[in-house]
Design goal:
Helices cover 26% and strands 26% of the residues. By secondary structure, the protein is of the alpha+beta class. β9 and β10 form a beta hairpin. The radius of gyration is 20 Å and the shape is globular.
Amino acid sequence: MNQAVAFNNNLSAKLPQVRGTYEEDASLKKYTWFRTGGPAEVLYTPADIDDLMVFMNGKPRDTPVTMIGLGSNMIIRDGGVPGVVIRLGKGLANVNVRDDKILVGGGALDSAVAAAARDAGLTGFEFLSGVPGTIGGALRMNAGAFDQAMQEIVVYARVLDLQGNLQTIAAEDLGFGYRSTSVPEGWIFAGAMLQGMPGERGAIAQKMEEIRAFREESQPMREKTGGSTFHNPEHGEAAGRKAWEIIDGAGCRGLTLGGAKISEKHCNFLINTGDASSQDLEDLGEMVRKRVLSASGVSLEWEVRRIGLPLSTTESKA
């Protein structure tokens, strides 16, 4: 179908002039690891943080804004995303080492930060080499791996509110929780100051290699996937158990629906086998949740972000 008909409000004409770029009816598939989903009504790539502030301050107040990072833990629904989708580019991807700290932009790759820390002989950042995505997303969800999480290395974050005001928020005021912060939805993590400790480069490099090898062995790294699909349970009798163990116990390993599949290598990973739609992926995830609930009484919660509209919704608007 013609998505330009579904998104027919001429939104770009209402947006403020910026030094970055606007792209109408922009395909988002190439920006997600699943390689599925519909377009953005408008995709905005800011030139730098000042440009982003101008946009946030000048956009119509009723315009929806959605942030995407590397698209590594996200399902974009097939009907696309109304409003403006913001993707932080090179202008907010700075990684600057300052003694035992690193000043980073929200668009910096987690892996790039880990590599810069290694090269500078700073330890404490190795886990980021195993976190696919950008620093902005890692801050938003308090990303973690290998018994570490962002809350352990953040000194402060730089955050844009809905009016484009830039705030510096100390780590203790970010409300870090399991895969979450208390920062309001819609606010944008533009960067952060991170704290490391002096370490030996060889030992740091070795730990990063061990993380890479472990992920290669235990996770479907070479598939079109989106990282961990569901949170590990935090409450009730299942607290402390791994989501993949519960999913496996419900007989969901290798389960398929359309072009979507539960990984046989790690069954908390959804896979696009080649021709999956986002609806296939989401429906399969919901099928797993129902089977797990029936088998064990555990209600799994999504970790993968699901954004946008189902295709049927945009078809009905066309």
